[in-house]
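Bump. Still looking for MerR family transcriptional regulator structure tokens.
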Amino acid sequence: MADGVKSDFRDMFHKGQLTIGISELSRMTGVSPRQLRYWQKKGYIIPKNEDEPGRARIYTMRMVLKAAAMSNLLQTGYTLKAAAAQVDERMKPAQTMYHVLFDRYQGYEVTDAGEILVDLGPFDPDPTQELYAQLVAEKPRFVLKGRV
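Sorry for the wait, here they are.
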């Protein structure tokens, strides 16, 4: 696989390149921009560019999901503080999966049969082997191949 495709894919997700502005976040969540700014002041949501005062706020997809989930919990009676804590707790497994997948992702290959093998890098117990994942009947299957 070409390195350009690999880096484009990783950059898009790993570095938070998918972003939206505060107006879009407000429309998506039903939370007013003023309320979102309050949530930011309290530290519950953090714009990607928080270290650039005076610039329009932009939010990563992670913050979009967090704000949407908090909004839903607020509508069911949670306090803002409790909603933020609950969402943070619920997001921990997803954050772990994100790091496991994106820290290991090396690219992908397409086999002669048209199957996609996701390269997860050297196999820890035996670094002479490369670990690949593929979907077989919509279930993950792992394959070890000698490194070239």
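The longest helix spans residues 80-104.

Edit: fixed formatting.
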